Amino acid sequence: MLRMAQVHFDAIRQHGEETYPDECCGVLLGRIGDNAKIVVEAIQAENTRTDAAHNRYEIAPWQLIRIQQQARHRELDIVGFYHSHPDHPAEWSKTDLEEAHWIGCSYVITSVVGNASAGIEAAMGRATKTNSFLLTGTGEEDKRLEHEPIEVMASVGAR
Q1: Considering only the top CATH level, what class is 2-153?
Q2: Would you list the domain boundaries of the chain?
Q3: How far is CA 28 from CA 21, 66, 88, 114, 136, in A?
Q4: Are 134 and 102 contacting, i.e. CB atoms less than 8 angstroms apart?
């Protein structure tokens, strides 16, 4: 299970709306408990894909290292990643699985639906559904994404 405060859940969805019609992306910092990962912070990252930002994302290695260093300094772990699917369901794709490498981490996907396909110049999107998937397996050969419940709490300390 993935637990996060309402403020982090809302921030992930808002990030997807702000970057629409491109994919947003970010990193989830937190702690791993007995039965859940607790998100303490959702950090926005820049989508550095220049060839297909509308349906792919990439976090620059230097940015990921910086975020990981910040997490260690705060005695937190990277517990997951998030990205949006503009005008597509909040379900993982073949590419999402191929590009997921952090076994044990959560991969949160938010569907953002908007008017980009209508040819409207000022495209706007609205987050509609958010799902989480746990990357399981022992390595690249047998990894898989499994649906993971999200519990949205009033605050991080709430249950």
Answers
A1: alpha beta
A2: 2-153
A3: 22, 13, 22, 25, 17
A4: no
Q: How far is CA 73 from the centre of its chain?
A: 22
Closest-CA residue to 13 (of 90, 68, 117)? 90
First-to-last alpha carbon distance for the chain, in angstroms, is 12
Q: What is the pLDDT of residues 91-144, one digit of tens each?
A: 999 999 999 999 999 999 999 999 766 555 556 899 999 999 999 999 999 999
Residue type, 43: I
CB-CB contact of 80 with 145 (8 Å): no
pTM of the model: 0.92
Edge-first strand listing for the sheet containing 37-45:
144-148, 125-136, 106-114, 77-86, 25-32, 37-45, 2-5, 150-153
